[in-house]
Amino acid sequence: MRRIQNDDDYIHPALFPVETTTARKYWEPESKDNPLNAWKHRCELIARTPSSKILQNRTIAIKDNISVGGLPTTVGTFKELLCEEDGSLPLSTIDAAVVSRILEAGATIKGSSNCENYCASPLSFSAANGPVHNAWKYGYTSGGSSSGSASLVAANIVQREQGGSFGEIVDLAIGGDQAGSVRIPASYSGIYGLKPTYGLVPYTGAVSLAPMIDHLGPLANNLEDIALLLQVMAGYDGIDPRMTPESPLRSQVQDYPRLLSQFRDRKLEQGEDFGSGLTIGLLAESFEIQGLSEEVRDTVRQSAREFFTAAGAKVVDISIPHHRDGSLIWTAATRMSMSEWVFQGKTSGLLSFLPSHIHPRWPPDQRMYELTTATNPAAVNVMLSGPFLQEHFGPQVEAKAHRKVFELRAAYDQAFMQVDILVTPCAPTVAMPHPTMQVNEDGSYSSVMDKLSAAVGVTTNTASFNVTGHPALSVPCGFGQDSDASEVKLPIGMQLVGRRWEDATVVKAAAVFEEGRKRICIDGG
């Protein structure tokens, strides 16, 4: 062990940073240039000799749990917990697999986007440098943990519709998703967010929460960009143990943009409608979850029925009782060992390549506990529940929960013998105000339980599909009202779920929904 500790490290050649047009450097944006607090570090990276121009002139933000060569990776937490002895932040010596692919496709990486403290929140108040704000309403959650990514993309729509300026924003972004951390921010922010099929996109170079639920996915303002970014990111990398024999080689990745274009532009046969042959299942149990607002429930259900039907798809109700236990199974299957991955940097047990510049602070000390409790007590819950559950249950219950994942997957797969797409609400409410993170003048503040309770139930409809591996896409489907100011409109997201490895069908289904909405709007004025 001492020999390995003292020996030179090794960088996999596939992860060498892509040569860029200028030297790699980064800077921390000033507050005036970062009004949503959505940026963590800024940069300007363009490949010197890209292999394609598929993303040329497109700007992109990378979530701050994904390695970008020459930049720090802070995972939303405090410098104090990450710095070297000289006080400097360690810089990444690699480009994550998806970062290399994005640069090689000609994109301009504008920086790393803020994310939640240790990526352990579905809301956006816990980042070490302060809350990330929703582009639709300042002081409200943008969703987490890919909070900055969603805000930077959604700002395009808000700026176009309402004016104002958000500083530097981007066309596209990459997020990470372990329980809904791409889809929940997309839902709150009124954009598209895809969690691909497990194993379709390599996770190499990103910080893990737990290998069985780790996903990277695109966020964008339209379906074409979701398809485009998925095509660039997807495919076997030869390094990530999450990828399986079903994962396509790079040369075999489907041309998602072309498939979407052909689907939209195809010539319909006599008697055929745009959505003909597609059966949409409204997942009954997903509309009954605790904490689901009537507004979100009715908007998702009504828009799904009206718009899919208007485009010629068949809409049915379907019951999957196992869905009620989905988030419970997710928790039991991951929580006991999650602290080992994200806080201790444990390897998966399978051959894997963890970023060498990520140095988890372990064991935790009082200072780490105090800092993390003040911003994200959910992360402390993850940290401490590992040893607690190990003591009270041991590995047998976690192993049983893994077996229950297979049962849950089979239940969804059985439903997919009857329908092509499952529809659920995504986030259970519209965006809510951030909790008070500092003591007010009157002495009030948000307690630990205030911060925890705000997040309870947010991922009930999304977490299931992280353990089962099914692709899931958040689609904007309407607006709701802010409970404190009724004139403010806030987005509502609908989740579309498909068969594993049928990500293209999920994207096409979203196109059918869009077509139906367009028809309803035209007919209804």
TrEMBL record:
Coiled coil: none
Domain Amidase: 52-506
Any GO MF annotation of the entry: catalytic activity
Any one Pfam family match given in the protein's UniProt record, by short name: Amidase
Protein name, entry field: Amidase domain-containing protein
